[in-house]
Amino acid sequence: MINTIQPEWNAPPGVHAFCTTRGGGVSDMPFDSFNLATHVGDDAQRVAENRSLLRRYRSLPGEPCWINQTHGNRVVTLEVDHSRDADAAVTRSLGTVAVVMTADCLPILLCNREGTEVAAVHAGWRGLQAAVIQAALEAMKSPAASLMAWIGPGISQACFEVGEEVREAFLDSTAEAISCFSEHGEGHWLCDLAGLAELILTQLGVTELDRDRHCSYRDRDLFYSYRREAVTGRMASLIWINC
Q1: CB atoms closer than 10 angstroms to residue 13
Q2: Which residue range(s) make up the domain with 11?
Q3: For the residues 40-56, what does the mean pLDDT come to?
Q4: Does residue 163 belong to any structural domain of this protein?
Q5: How many structural domains compose the chain?
Q6: 92 within 8 A of 78, measured Cβ to Cβ
Q7: Cα–Cα distance measured from residue 135 to residue 137, given in angstroms and rounded to the nearest whole number
């Protein structure tokens, strides 16, 4: 059985969204079992079967618009952009499924209150520092104050150690980021990735925020984690406007 996580947010009825977990598919170890990524070394036929299971299980309106994530800040508008090298996707078309894949990085799903525009954002620390959230909001036609956001499951602060250079990069952008780092030995810090995303969204004017509290690193039965396993699969977070 395919296990999914539903965002706990007040999205309008026409907006559909969920995040997959690692359970319920056909992939073998170390991708067991519901890996949806083609770039991690899994058998291509098994990935194709998992994607087919995803479409059938959730009765998706079409094939998700898979993107080639680069840990940058490029955003595609799915109706007009032919390139899929990006870390965020925006759509205003009925039945077009935006999707990002993660295994410690954050999936961030966005929609406006009218239910006429949605976006999916892949946000690791590099993407956050490169302003991927800012770029996604700029690509959307809705003002930030009319948006709501769901920050999906990623690595928790207790499991995410970074170096001084990461902390300094964020502090150079905003002094308020200091609250998202806890010292963990000389020159090492525990980073609250979701806290940074929440801070950025709030500063941009998005006030309706919800945040999943799972940890991809700690909850090994539910999630893939690149930091924990290196060779592993990917979960998918999807959002679309119902036809």
Answers
A1: 7
A2: 4-154+208-241
A3: 97
A4: no
A5: 1
A6: no
A7: 6
